[in-house]
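<amino_acid_chain>
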Amino acid sequence: MPEAAPATCTPVTCVDVPVARSLVNRGRVDATAGQAGAGDSAPDAATVRDCAAAGDWEGAAEAAARVAAHSQPLTPAEAWPTVMVLYLQGELAAAESVLARTSVDGAAAEHADADQALLAAWEASVAWARAGADDCRAAVTRALALARAADDPRALAAAHIVHALLAAAQDDRRANDRHYALALAAAERSRDRTLQLRVRVNRASQRLEEGDLNGARLELDAAGAVLARPGPAPHPAMAGLARHNQADLDLRAGRLPAARDGFRAAAALLQRAGTATVAFPLTGLGETHELRGDLQQARAAYEEAVLVADAGGIAAALGPALCGLARVFAAIGDGAAGPVAARAVAVADGLTRAQAYAAAGWAAAGTDPAIARAHADTAITLARAGRNPAALAEALELAAVTARDGATESLLADAARVYADLDDPIGAARVALARARAGLGRTPAADQVLTEHRLHALGVDPFAGTRSLAGAATGEPVSVRMLGSFAVLRSGEEVPAGVWQSRKARDLLKLIVARRGRPSTREALGEGLWPGADNVANRLSIALSVLRNVLDPERMVAPGHYVIASPAGVAYDPRTLRVDVDVFLQLAEAGVAAAKATASGPGAADREARLLLDAAAEAYTGDVLDDEPDLAVAEALREQARAAFLTVMRTLGAVCARAGDTDDAVRAWLRVLERDPYEEDTALRLVETLIAAGRHGEAARHHRLYAQRMRELGVAPRAPRGTGELR
């Protein structure tokens, strides 16, 4: 929630940015303001009260700084407006100094007046922000008792707000809801627009945490109505935080450009107001850049947010900023990820603890998956207990990425369901891509193409980012190339021929890949590798051992991870060993099926077919093992892939023609005719499409070529449909 929350903070090294520098320096200037003419602070205290009542918050802030710089004792009536203004400005240390020299009547609570109650209420807010949930409990309890005794609606609203924050930090969401409802009723009774906005802003943030986007939207609409009412302006920090929450709503709904612009606008408002709560939109801006895959911009924004939150003691922003910074460091391989994540855990409260443990898990994922999985399990437990579905989805995603017990598929499915319930399109697409890249589903290659396109449409780079996108640009750990020339690639680099200790090990891989995951008996493999030889079992075992060593020289996975040897035979696992011809055939099948399903006319589904067909055409880099045309074992797969390629290009031509994309349709059909110049239907469709586009000269040339080839076969050429004979 966008309220100052408890923390014990020590600065981390951050970039020196203008916003952070201006806020930190302003704090130093304000702390010394007025010292040269330190007289009676009562006039300044009265100025704070009068300016705040008139909505002149700049004047109130200047007067409050002068009050804070004096040393004279204050009465509750003089002190509470100053403490309120300093709290709203994020000047918590200055607010504490004012409280320390305020004389408080020790009378029983039932005799409290409104000034004592208001002082106690704002003192509780400062205690919440500075002392922590446990240490502020007494102050919060006293504030509510005094507010009830005085029956002052402003004091009641402020006291119930802090009670709501305390309840949220203790994972008591029912008490949190109840106190916010009481706070809102009291704030509306007081007609204090700043307090009304404070409740609306906090409740909108609460709804966003719970994944209730519609509820957050209603709260923000109500906040907008409060801002539109005539009268003295509410504190600009509340208006800025309302703008921040609107940007956060856009972020969670996947509207990244709107979120970016909204966070920038909120930061500008809060910076003009001179409040350290600018750390909230800076954190939001960091997450926007992070989701887009702009990791260096994300780092700069998060570091700026950490610096500002540290300087102002704004722990509610500090924790999420540290979490984001840890994720970014982990994604770029910076060793600071672990220490930053550890600090996020140290400063976390009930609102942010699950997110902090998830960040610690991402920081450890690349170096110690077991530790990362333990952090994921902790985050899952905390998120479920705290009614925090966004943190739960992220923790499930982390658990899936670090799973070593075959649970990846079910964990990704659970994460996908939570992201869907949250209406989070980016999280859902990211998990779908992780599923496809893990080889899960019937056509993972097709799913990967479509999901990458979906992320691009949302403004997300699917090859850069954090969480399950981290490291995606490095490609498959191990893959096999069968289209064109044979090769094994590790992390995108071809394994040199000298690494293979035996040509038979290479041939073994070709044999089992040609079967496309179907087991080959040891007898069949022995006959294929050593025709007519006897007692080849030992030779086969040696070749299998060499092959596994080439695929996994560091012994990072179990022996059967890539190549499975069982009583049924030997096979590769298509889920773990990526083979280019498998990818092509999956894309071809899915693309042709999608085109058939949308043959009635162009539309969104037809664009999906085009994506898949284009990807299939790009994936076909040559015939299967075309550098070994006489290898009999590859012949069946070679013909299957070649036929699929021709079908893809015919279908792609039809889809392009239907969409009015004549050039691409012509290119597709020409690729078919390059391989089979006598294919009559394709030649005629090419001519007909050119005629329909008004390109009659090209149409005539292609028709002459077609007619010549038909005569070579002794077949009478046909005229294109709907035309006379072309000459």
Q: What stands out?
A: The chain is about 65% helix and 5% strand. Strands lie at 478-481, 487-490, 493-494, 563-566, 569-572, 578-579. The two ends are 76 Å apart (CA to CA). The longest helix spans residues 635-658.
